Amino acid sequence: MSADVSWLNFSGQTALITGGARGIGRHIAIGLARSGAFVIINYKSDDKAAQEALDLIEEFEGKASLCKFDVSDPKQVDQQVNEVLKERKSVEILVNNAGIAKDGLVGRMRDADWQDVLNTNLTGAFNMCRALAKSMVRRRYGRIVNISSTAGELGNAGQANYSAAKAGLIGLTKSLARELAPRNILVNCVAPGIIHGGISEHLNQEQLDVVLQHVPLGRLGTPEEVAASVAFLCSPMANYITGQVLRVNGGLYM
Question: Is pLDDT at 254 greater than 70 in this prediction?
Answer without folding.
Answer: no
